[in-house]
Amino acid sequence: MKLSLPLQGYFDLLKHSPGEKKFVCINCGRPVSGLYRQISSTVLKIIDCDKCKKPADKYIEFEVLIILIDLILLSKPAYRHILYNSDCKNLWKIGCILILLEAYCFWTDAFRGITSITYRSHLTDPFLSEKGFYLSTVHFVAGFILLYGFIYLFTRVLHRSVPRVTGNGKTYPYMLLHGVILASIGKFLFIPIIIWRENSTETGMAIHIVLVLMYFVISLVQIHSVVSDCTRSRSGVIVILAFIVKAYFLTRVSGLLQQFV
Fold first, then answer.
1. C-alpha separations of 135 from 83, 95, 250 in Å
2. Pairing state of beta strands 36-38 and 44-46?
3. Phi and psi at residue 255, in whole multiples of 5°?
4. In sequence order, which residues have a C-beta less than 8 Å from that of residue 172 and are 6 or more positions away?
5. Residue 161 has pLDDT above 80, yes or no
6. Residue 219: CB partners within 8 Å, gap ≥ 6?
7. R_g of the chain computed on alpha carbons
8. 8 A C-beta contact, residue 105 and residue 193
9. Transmembrane region positions (predicted)?
10. Separation CA 189–CA 197 (nearest Å)
11. What are the tens digits of pLDDT across the range 230-256?
């Protein structure tokens, strides 16, 4: 079977020394010593997991589009492939882009249908108006840090069996950070709000924003369940608690930032 490694230059497979159990089976989440065996210079054979007896990582023979579709469908195996078996070089770039996207939507009052917070200045001075965008960026950076921090805190309190080191040898806080960023990819669905904002009603925009946020919460619950190795119900409780506490503290932060508008 000929294989072409997916996500070349973006999510390359991790490189480990032979015998190191730093890959993860995408089906059961248990460490495996490798994902494939080299039969010849052009032929590879996927290794089966010793525990579940299934192919350790079927996605090494899939095209990028198939992996992305499974990510959109909130597939746990797809999440494990990206988080544990791939070198996620560009996730931090994606996180920065998403924060800037949300900040721009907030600054242009695209979110005014679900919140009364605004950083847009009523003055015509372009420099003062631009200041609102930077305040919006600070708002969402603070929101991301608070969300990640409270998810980590509540996980430690409610799910004490979280390992310090995950199946692929990386620390749990590091993998959780990557998971929160990966779950945020659904926020790219905010782009239609920017494009069609002038032709949409306040109600329609509010519904769109709520649906995107619901998708984000569901994907975050799914990824937290993968990274923390706990049930979806417990992950749901942890994520929802983190969102509630984050919203409380972010409201206080927003009040301070609005003083600079």
1. 31, 18, 13
2. antiparallel
3. -60, -40
4. 162, 163, 164, 165, 166, 227, 228
5. no
6. 74, 183, 185, 186
7. 21
8. yes
9. 132-154, 174-195, 207-227, 233-251
10. 13
11. 889 999 999 999 999 998 888 887 777
**pLDDT at position 13, please?**
57
d(CA 36, CA 55): 9
Residue 32 phi, psi dihedral angles, 5° rounding: -130, 155
Rounded Cα distance between 164 and 238, Å, is 18
DSSP-derived secondary structure letter, 189: G
- Give the integer Cα–Cα distance in Å for 215 and 178: 18
* Domain limits, the chain: 5-61, 85-259
Task: Note the pLDDT of residue 159.
Answer: 83
- The SS3 assignment for 24 reads strand
Q: How many residues does the chain have?
A: 261
Joined together, the tokens standing for residue 67 give: 């992996």
Report DSSP letters for 28-74, one per residue.
Answer: T--EES-SEEE-SSS-EEEPBPTTT-SBS-GGGGS-HHHHHHHHHTT
51-86 pLDDT, tens digit per residue, is 888 888 888 888 888 888 999 999 999 999 988 888
